[in-house]
Design goal:
8-stranded mixed sheet, alpha/beta, 360 residues
Length: 360
């Protein structure tokens, strides 16, 4: 019986490639072992602590070129700050409903611009709203308060009309000195002090202390408003997480302002390929100057912050996410495939040599 033998031939070049891939794979595995935890705590959603119960959850929802933030409070109540544009209304409602939320206890609109209030009608249509905090701006169908400027868009007017049709909802004005207080949290409205003709100048600024973590929401406040705020509140403006003003426009987030807030993290809510160039290079450079870890909804989609006691965890819920463990797995598969590919030319030469007839 003829003995069967199996041979795999490798050239020097293929052996060198295999050795290089092996070294690269080993380096990647070491990177995962050494750096995965500190990286994941700041950026990625593989941190198992994000799936653990939390005291507070803050969802920066991707609504394109607009703003919307949902805060799940530790007493079971929910606060929604802004609601994006009309175009993102269905997407926003779906996101909130998927969290099991049926009631919006505090619905706050920072100002009357469409990219902050456009989804308001759908919020009133799909959720029970208990308390409505509205801008210091009249709509087209309102005649009071007389000292409030009018925002002449049908979109804003429709939202205000939808509120009046919401049975049982109470209305408040989002103005300086208004506080929302729970046992373990306090949300303070720091600005505005009055109605302004410019809707951005009327934009509400909120400082939320949720357990041991502080969040600052700037709406569309610009440098002039930032100056007023830090001159009045000083170091009391400090926050762990900053919701960057005006989608990262160069007219907001000055270095003087950042020196008072001194955030660890910053969130920029903006849409892809927006015509304004948000976020601007000036804002990004200012954040880098202060060593702030920043995320934008353009790059990462929905962004989640959770707090437990004095700890804060972050995660990306969709969009761009680099998973080093997955990369290592792919590299491992490539390595196995490469190691299993023989040098077919050498195999062919061996076969031809065995079949050659030697003449005597």
């Amino acid at each position: 019986m003829k003995k069967f033998t199996f041979k795999i031939f490798y050239s020097k070049k293929s052996l060198a490639i295999r050795a290089a891939i092996s070294v690269f794979l080993l380096a990647a595995i070491i990177l995962v072992i050494v750096f995965r935890q500190p990286i994941s705590r700041k950026i990625y959603n593989w941190n198992s602590e994000l799936n653990a119960p939390a005291d507070f959850s803050v969802h920066y929802i991707d609504v394109g070129q607009g703003d919307s933030t949902l805060i799940e409070l530790d007493d079971g109540k929910n606060m929604l700050i802004d609601c994006g544009s009309r175009a993102s209304g269905d997407q926003l409602v779906s996101y909130i409903q998927n969290l099991g939320v049926e009631t919006i206890d505090y619905f706050l609109l920072t100002h009357a611009d469409e990219d902050h209030v456009g989804g308001g009608v759908k919020i009133f249509d799909n959720f029970e709203v208990k308390n409505f905090y509205r801008p210091l701006t009249r709509s087209l169908s309102e005649s009071e308060p007389e000292d409030f400027y009018v925002h002449d868009t049908i979109i804003y007017d429709n939202v205000i009309r939808a509120f009046y049709e919401e049975a049982g909802a109470e209305m408040f004005y989002a103005k300086e000195g208004t506080n929302i207080i729970g046992e373990n949290y306090v949300v303070k409205i720091l600005y505005p002090d009055k109605s302004y003709s410019d809707t951005n100048a009327t934009s509400a600024v909120l400082h939320a202390e949720l357990g041991g973590t502080k969040f600052l929401f700037m709406g569309d406040a610009a440098h002039a408003q930032e100056n007023k705020i830090y001159k009045k509140y000083g170091k009391n403006l400090a926050a762990d997480v900053l919701k960057v003003g005006h989608h990262g426009a160069k007219t907001s987030t000055s270095t003087n302002f950042l020196s008072y807030v001194n955030p660890e993290f910053a969130i920029i809510s903006a849409g892809k390929d927006n015509k304004y160039g948000h976020p601007t290079e000036e804002v990004i450079n200012n954040l880098k100057l202060f060593g702030v870890t920043y995320f934008s909804t353009i790059d990462y989609g929905n962004i989640l912050f959770k707090t437990k006691g004095n700890k804060i965890y972050t995660g990306i819920l969709q969009g761009k996410m680099i998973d080093y463990a997955l990369i290592c797995t792919i590299l491992g598969c490539i390595l196995l495939i490469v190691w299993g590919i023989p040098d077919f030319n050498a195999f062919k030469r061996e076969k031809e040599g065995n079949n050659k007839i030697v003449k005597k």
